[in-house]
Amino acid sequence: MDTNRPPLLQPILDLGQGTLLVLKAVAGAPRLLTHRDSRRAFADQLYLCGISTLPVLTVTAIFMGMILALETGIELQRWSQEEYIASAVMVSMLREMGPFLSALVMAACVGSSIAAQLGTMAVNEELSALELMSIDPIGYLATPRIWAMALMMPLLSFCACMFGLLGGAAVGTTQLNVDWRLYFQVALHWAELKDLWVGLFKAFCFGIVISGVACHFGLATTGGATGVGKATRHCVIVSFLLILVTGYIITRCFYGFAR
Questions:
Q1: Residue 3 burial by CB count (10 A; 0-12/13-18/19+): exposed, middle or buried?
Q2: Cα separation of 143 and 52, whole Å?
Q3: What angle do CA 218, 223, 228 make, to 5 degrees?
Q4: Is 172 in contact with 178 (CB distance < 8 Å)?
Q5: CB atoms within 10 A of CB 71
Q6: Percentage of residues in the chain having pLDDT higher than 70
Q7: Which of 198, 194, 208, 199 is nearest to 162 (CA)?
Q8: Which residues contact 208 (CB under 8 A, 6 or more apart)?
Q9: If 0-12 CB within 10 Å is exposed, 13-18 middle and 19+ buried, where does residue 78 land?
């Protein structure tokens, strides 16, 4: 990032540069299948984005489902309708909380790691060494990360939904006296395929946003160790903001208009 530019102009330039980076990375997808080194890097990134973050996501999703079930159940108990907590948990997790929780965990755990790794390579002039060997840093470094994040995010979002539903079931059966069979029957009754597909699409978009932001700030790092720290911090902050904005826009497009 160029600190000499006007502060109001910098976000616009970052947005444009990040968008171009994502487009170049998406266009470089065939390389992931045709080059052995790219396939290996892609597999490593799939593991980093998926398996390594699953424990944190599991705990987060279970307790989020428990919180949703408990807060909703307390209110529904006033009208003796606590069995409908399953519908609130299921729809909330499918539409919003599953993709949102997955995106936050990925931005904090994986996005910051990508920004720090690429930032360290940038300040150590390893990117210049790649260019001297006629290797495109975006295709070699950004493409596997962006595609791995985009593909793993929907899977993680679905896992978060299921773990959240199980957490809600645990609260419903132990604290609200809701039969677990009735709980899952109500959840499946109120769930719609549209909610599932919108949630998966939202997670896919979040994956592109997070990885694009992380790669942009990482590759644009300057200023030594201090610059790496700033790039990592900016990556997390911008990712969180764009997750909120993108999530609202997608929800508005699919649910915000009159039928």
A1: exposed
A2: 20
A3: 40
A4: yes
A5: 13
A6: 95
A7: 199
A8: 22, 146, 149, 150
A9: exposed
Distance CA 84, CA 90 (A): 10
Share of the chain above pLDDT 90, in %: 36
- Is the per-residue pLDDT at 165 higher than 70? yes
- What is the C-alpha separation between 161 and 146, in angstroms, rounded? 23
Q: At 179, list the tokens.
A: 């039969």
Q: Output DSSP code: residue 39.
A: H
CA atoms within 13 A on the CB side of 216: 26
Q: Which residue, chain included where needed, has tokens 């419903």?
A: 172
- CA angle 5/11/15 to nearest 5° reads 120
User: What is the distance between the alpha carbons of residues 233 and 231, in angstroms, rounded to a whole number?
Assistant: 5
C-alpha–C-alpha distance, residues 247 and 239, integer Å = 12
- The two three-digit tokens of residue 101, written as one number: 């929780």
178, two tokens: 């809701």
